[in-house]
Write a structure and sequence with these properties.
about 30% helix; 12 helices; six-stranded mixed β-sheet; 19 strands; seven-stranded parallel β-sheet; 2 domains; elongated
């Protein structure tokens, strides 16, 4: 697996220029969407990112070791009795309940320290965040808290679906809430929200998937591709018409076939749902310069490609099949697997030999 750090940096610069004058942060949760936070986060810092978002406190601690001067927010909030840990790591919780706000406020008062934290308001996703009523009530007294909020934020539920009525409604609701917290920077937009226009960007945007070469909004082309995934052919074989391939005999060969078994399976993030059957063709890969379909089910460690249409002898044991790259994007692979690009990236296994290119001290 080859990860292009220059592409990630360039994608961030593109979004930063688009979002200006809003600040462009970077979401690096889930090990930088499966691509490796240790090389990715410093490459984003060198490109100019100064604010980062992760999901868990453990991720924030790892990120702090990499970027001592970064602003780091933990999206999943403040668990009970963890405020001292956040303060010691100089990490900012995203507070999404009255209990969290109260606990952080009391902790800051006890320390006589104004330690920054974000406040998350639920504007219609119903996943995390203060209710609108709680946010309005807090807005009348937030100056009396033991800390000054460093960010007021919410999250868009349907920004990737063009024209969805909830997206416009959430923006209006959030704008009303944000104005009740004068002097506090506001943030609503994820990758898709950043593309929706100036009205959605407020003071800070939080792109994730678009940085890593995925599609943010249906119909909007991704930025530079980031990941190339190559696997080895471990066996070339033949099978007569009428035989089946793989577990469950899910696909019966309609012609005498040549097959290439490759060293990748669902333990490596090639989803079982991406296999082929008599009813539907599954994932494609590139062998000998041409796209070939999987045949039969994906197993844990192996998958099989139909190479019948390639010149005989053009594929040998030890050759390389490309599952990402050469025109196959993470979203192409996702669609064939019945999922989304986010899940493809986050599911890439640990068995690949990873190679990072670019991302030098000059930022690419």
């Amino acid at each position: 697996m080859t990860i292009d750090l220059d592409a990630i940096a360039d994608n961030w610069r593109t979004l930063s220029a688009l979002a200006a004058p809003a600040e462009c942060a970077a979401v690096v949760k889930a090990d930088a969407y499966g691509l490796g936070i240790e090389p990715v986060a410093p490459a984003l810092w060198r490109a100019g990112a100064r604010t980062f978002f992760v999901a868990h406190f453990k991720e924030a601690v790892a990120l702090r070791a990499l970027l001592p001067d970064a602003v780091i927010y933990v999206l999943n909030g403040l668990l009970p009795d963890t405020a001292p840990d956040f303060a010691a790591a100089q990490v900012r919780p995203v507070l999404g309940s009255v209990a969290e706000v109260s606990e952080w406020s009391d902790f800051c008062r006890d320390r006589s320290a104004d330690i920054p934290a974000a406040i998350h308001v639920d504007t219609g996703m119903h996943r995390l965040g203060l209710s609108l009523e709680e946010a309005v009530q807090l807005s009348g007294t937030f100056r009396l808290l033991g800390f000054k909020p460093s960010l007021i934020m919410s999250h868009l539920a349907c920004a990737d679906l063009p024209g969805h009525v909830l997206t416009a409604r959430q923006r209006l609701v959030f704008a009303d809430v944000a104005r009740r917290f004068p002097g506090v920077p506001a943030s609503l937009a994820n990758s898709a929200g950043t593309l929706l226009g100036r009205d959605f960007r407020f003071d800070l945007v939080r792109p994730g998937i678009f940085l890593y070469g995925g599609v943010a909004i249906a119909g909007v082309p991704p930025l530079r591709p980031v990941v190339r995934l190559e696997v080895k052919v471990v066996q070339v074989s033949t099978a007569p018409a009428g035989e089946t391939v793989g577990y469950g005999a899910a696909e019966r060969l309609k012609r005498p076939s040549r097959l290439a078994t490759v060293s990748i399976g669902y333990a490596d993030g090639l989803f079982r749902a991406g296999g082929s059957s008599d009813a539907a063709k599954g994932v494609e890969a590139i062998l000998a310069g041409k796209r070939c379909h999987l045949v039969g089910r994906v197993s844990m460690d192996l998958a099989t490609l139909d190479i019948t249409d390639l010149p005989e002898g053009s594929v040998q044991r030890g050759d390389t099949a490309v599952f990402l790259g050469d025109g196959i994007s993470v979203d192409d692979l996702a669609v064939r697997s019945g999922t989304i690009g986010y899940e493809v990236l986050a599911s890439l296994g640990t068995r690949y030999a990873r190679r990072y290119v670019g991302g030098g001290s000059g930022g690419g």
